[in-house]
Amino acid sequence: MQGGWIHVITGCMFSGKTDELLRLLRRAEIAGRRIVLVRPTLDDRTRPEVVESRSGVAFRARPVTGAAAIPAIVTTERSSVVAIDEAQFFDPELPEIVELLAAEGRTVLVSGLDQDFLGRPFNTMPSLLALADQVTKLTAICTVCGADATRTQRMVGGRPAAADDPLIVVGGMHDDRYEARCRAHHVIGGARGAIPLALDLSSGS
Ligand SMILES: [Zn+2]
Predict the structure, then answer these.
(1) 122 and 62 in one domain?
(2) What is the pLDDT of residue 203?
(3) Domain check: are 67 and 125 in the same one?
(4) Of 44, 43, 108, which Cα lies nearest the Cα of 70?
(5) 113 CA → ligand 1 middle, Å
(6) Mean pLDDT by 10 residues, the chain (205 residues)
(7) Disulfide check for 121: which of 62, 99, 126, 169 has CB 3.0–4.6 Å away?
């Protein structure tokens, strides 16, 4: 049996991780390999059943509630290639499951954000990067200066998000957006007390 392989594709938002994952899946498909693509159910930015690239390539995705659900799907589908999208949102069991799948001789393609919006290593991504046989770290373009961007800037109400801003902004997600930034232009906002009252929707003071 061919040896397994773990390939982690990472970087900040807008770095093209999903496009790269789908490119590799397309190649595996041409090679006649059996593929399964999973993603966590909690990500609702796109239709959960389909992962689509900007170039229009799309693959059916199996939404899963946790990493423990992945091996059963892989066994049922008899997949030799397992793709995991939005890996940063999975539970702490994911690295163990990925190792198991690779030990069975499968190719495991993992795509996920390496850092959260504060620049901190994101959940199990550091472990997955350490366990990987191959790492592709992609960069985006800084929206301020045009340099290579490696960080995700969160903006809430037009201002850099603070460390203690809620992950979900009460009263409208349209005020919550993300940009790619270089190290010099990645800003962590001041404490919430510095945010104008009109934007401070979750507490009165
Ligand atoms: Zn910059």
Answers:
(1) yes
(2) 46
(3) yes
(4) 108
(5) 19
(6) 88 96 95 96 63 80 95 97 96 98 98 95 97 98 98 90 72 73 94 53 45
(7) 126
- Residue 30 CB: number of other CB atoms within 10 A? 8
Q: Which residue in 52, 77, 86, 96 is the catalytic one? A: 86
Which segments of the chain does DSSP mark as H helices, in order?
Answer: 17-30, 70-77, 94-103, 125-131
> Which residues span the domain enclosing 121?
5-138
Do residue 155 and residue 180 come from a single domain?
yes
Same domain, 156 and 187: yes
52 in active site: no
Please indicate, yes or no, if residue 143 is contained in any of the structural domains: no
Predicted local distance difference test score (pLDDT) of residue 169: 53
Q: Give the integer Cα–Cα distance in Å for 112 and 89.
A: 8
CA distance 190 to 67: 35
CA of 139 from ligand 1 middle (Å) equals 12
Judge contact between 7 and 110, C-beta under 8 A.
yes
Number of domains in the chain: 2
How far away, in angstroms, is 117 Cα from ligand 1 center? 15
Cα of 163 vs centre of ligand 1, distance in Å, is 20
